[in-house]
Amino acid sequence: MINLLKVVRSFRFAGAGILALFRYENNARVHLLAASGVVAVSFWLQLNRIEWAIILTQIGLVWAAEGVNTAIEKLCDLVSPGYHPQVKAIKDLSAGAVLLVVLVAVVVGSLLIGMKLYTRFQLFFS
Fold first, then answer.
1. What is the rounded distance in angstroms from the CA atom of residue 25 to the CA atom of residue 66?
2. Residue 105: which residues within 8 A CB-CB, separation 6 or more?
3. What is the DSSP letter of 82?
4. For 7, 56, 92, 107, which has the most beta carbons within 10 A of its beta carbon?
5. What is the model's pLDDT at position 126?
6. What is residue 1's predicted lDDT score, i.e. its pLDDT?
7. pLDDT recorded at residue 19
8. What average pLDDT values come out for the chain (126 residues) when binned by 10 residues?
9. 88 in a labelled binding site
10. Could you tell me the pTM of the whole model?
């Protein structure tokens, strides 16, 4: 049987984690700002449902990757407060994973939004 109270509590904890991510993590705020710009331009370009689904999935993937990266970094700092080469490698790999997700999101956004912008401005300047 599902314990509804536990489920609600879990969602509350997860929500607190999301709030902490955007409240305390500078990179997450940068991603939030970029996502806000992408969403604003997407409204202006009147993306269709499939395009919205793709754009929102990319935004979610970037935020999720940043959240996992932040969790890994905080865990590393807790376990090994001083400098350790293995901890540095772990943090670098985690940050690199975020960068890969961001780069793919930029490519996907460029394919969707960039082409629509190109078409819109081509018609405007013709």
1. 9
2. 58, 59, 61, 62
3. S
4. 56
5. 65
6. 77
7. 97
8. 90 97 97 98 97 98 98 96 95 98 97 91 74
9. no
10. 0.90
Q: Which residues are catalytic?
A: 66
Q: How many domains does the chain have?
A: 1
Closest CA to 72 of 51, 57, 60, 86: 86
Specify the CATH number for the domain of residue 8. Answer: 1.10.287.3610
Amino acid, single-letter form, for residue 97: A
Whole-angstrom Cα distance, residue 54 to residue 103?
A: 15
- The predicted structure's pLDDT at residue 2: 82
Containing domain of residue 95, as a range?
Answer: 4-125
51 is in an annotated binding site: no
Q: Given CA atoms 44, 50, 53, 55 in this order, what sign does their dihedral have? A: negative
In angstroms, the CA 93 to CA 21 distance is 19
Q: How far apart are CA 27 and CA 97, in angstroms?
A: 14
91 annotated as belonging to a binding site for a ligand: yes
